[in-house]
Amino acid sequence: MDIQRESMEYDVVIVGAGPAGLATSIKLKQINPNLNVCILEKGSEVGAHILSGNVFETRALDELIPDWKTKKCTN
After folding, report:
1. Where along the chain do its domains lie?
2. Which of 29, 35, 53, 63 gives the lowest tally of CB atoms within 10 Å of its CB?
3. Does the pLDDT of residue 62 top 60, yes or no?
4. Residue 17 in contact with residue 46, Cβ under 8 Å?
5. Backbone angles phi, psi at 12, to 5 degrees
6. More confident residue, 14 or 56
7. What is the pLDDT of residue 74?
8. Are 37 and 10 in contact (CB under 8 A)?
9. What distances in angstroms separate CA 19 from CA 27, 34, 46, 66, one per listed residue?
10. Angle 59-52-37 from CA coordinates, rounded to 5°
11. For the CA atoms of the chain, what is the radius of gyration?
12. What single DSSP character describes residue 28?
């Protein structure tokens, strides 16, 4: 039996959509927008495994995306 499967090619595959994985993918796309980046997350959505209502320190986000506040990225 010959099974045909769909496939996609990526330049970079990041496992985990936690802060490190998301920051890495953002930085890679900033460096080279033509990179084909894939993030694999086992949860149903980003943040699905966060158990606490932690306070987010925005310093890293400010350095990674300096204008994130003006882009209406807040709730």
Report:
1. 11-43+55-75
2. 53
3. yes
4. yes
5. -140, 135
6. 14
7. 55
8. yes
9. 12, 22, 10, 16
10. 55
11. 16
12. H
Q: Which residue has the higher pLDDT, 41 or 11?
A: 11
- The tokens of 68 are what? 């994130």
Write the CB contacts of 24 (distance below 8 Å, at least 6 apart in sequence). Answer: 14
Please check whether residue 34 is in contact with residue 10, taking contact to mean a CB–CB distance below 8 angstroms. Answer: no
Report d(CA 49, CA 67) in Å as an integer. 27
Q: What kind and span of H or E run contains 15?
A: strand 12-15
Ordered DSSP codes for 33-56: TT--EEEE-SSSSTTTT--S-PPP
